[in-house]
Amino acid sequence: MPRTAGIILVGNEILSxxxxxxxxxxxxxxxxxxxxxxxxxxxIPDEVDxxxxxxxxxxxxxxxxxxxxxxxxxxxxxxxxxxxxxxGVRVIRHPALVALLEGFYKGALTEAHLxxxxxxxxxxxxxxxxxxxxxxxxGNVYVLPGVPEIFRRKFDAIRERFRxxxxxxxxxxxxxxEGILADHLNALVREYPDLLCGSYPEFSxxxxxxxxxxxxxxxxxxxxxxxxxxxxxxADSVVRVA
Amino acid sequence: MPRTAGIILVGNEILSxxxxxxxxxxxxxxxxxxxxxxxxxxxIPDEVDxxxxxxxxxxxxxxxxxxxxxxxxxxxxxxxxxxxxxxGVRVIRHPALVALLEGFYKGALTEAHLxxxxxxxxxxxxxxxxxxxxxxxxGNVYVLPGVPEIFRRKFDAIRERFRxxxxxxxxxxxxxxEGILADHLNALVREYPDLLCGSYPEFSxxxxxxxxxxxxxxxxxxxxxxxxxxxxxxADSVVRVA
Lengths: 242, 242
Fold this sequence. Notes:
The structure is a homodimer. By secondary structure, chain A is α/β, with parallel strands linked by helices. The first copy, chain A, has helices at residues 12-15, 23-34, 48-61, 79-87, 95-105, 111-114, 148-158, 178-191, 219-232; strands spanning 4-10, 37-44, 64-68, 91-93, 118-120, 124-126, 135-138, 141-144, 168-174, 196-201, 210-216, 238-241.
């Protein structure tokens, strides 16, 4: 069974237009390359109840879930509490994380810093030498930070866990509009119902009018579908296949 | 009551990492400037059932809802059907849109083009001279296209509908880390529970360590909260207020 993923961005700063997401877009590209199908992204406010509801729902609906943001020492960092509530467990202070923070902050460690040692009771710590702070895994929910540099470093440290059968992609760039193309695509998806087929018009691109994407985990099937589409399309309408 | 919004991106191409969203990020910034609070963004696949469920839920939860993408003549354009199903109505071919398409495509009009004349039964057409094609409004759901240039043009044509009391923002840039800052912010939000207060660390910025954002629709209240924060913060820790 292909593996599915959901992404929860805990992001007042995104919703209020102050910051443009960089983490979901990174994760979508990386997960796709690993063969994982992202089925949903939610951007929600930094509010415990909403995070809890979303983590619970995503945890049930998808094989793996990633959260981004809302971890840290300040009042608006409530993701850990939300993920704990979703799992119906308490938040505890993890001794290994306390030790790590003590080593890092030395005498300057504050109560607020110690908030970063909090995890949902029963969470697993994923330790990797490439990252200073382990990644918290609660059930199937991976808790990642919001700062993009750290988000990427932490995801890269765990990425091989998610490698699945690859999803193969063919792009067909055509010089005809969607109005003409539609009948050909309808016929194609009727004949190949398992094919993932997208159609993306470009309105200011001189090279082509529509990019058609064909995707499958089965390369032989994909090649057959591609051949079928190319046979159906009017002569000279195919600009490029890539 | 402040007006809330939800954004639904119908976006296989975003979930599969092929395209980076430009519409939700645009809309979040614009709506915020208009005084509208975006409460949630969902990115979901181009699947009728999912669109219907999301449009129904968003339509109930938020004052206004925007969809982006999934409108057009091809098999993967199923947003209209999803929005109709959410409202429990049929999809009909709108005579005014048929006439518009006939005028535009002249003799080259295909059955597939006519799919773009489909609307949920009972939808309103928002006509504006700046856009060729009216925007479809079903209940409180505004159906917008996925192509960013057209998305923006269509939103800009209707933006004044959404103008509300402005949300004022003050940014305080500080040279102390979140571990020290946290206590001050906690005290501040205890004293000003209605204040929207965010804390955003920067790890590679030489100018400051954390950006603190204070927001309110009440400018006098915001100024008081800002004065309170500045009084609380250690001397010399404030780099800049903007």
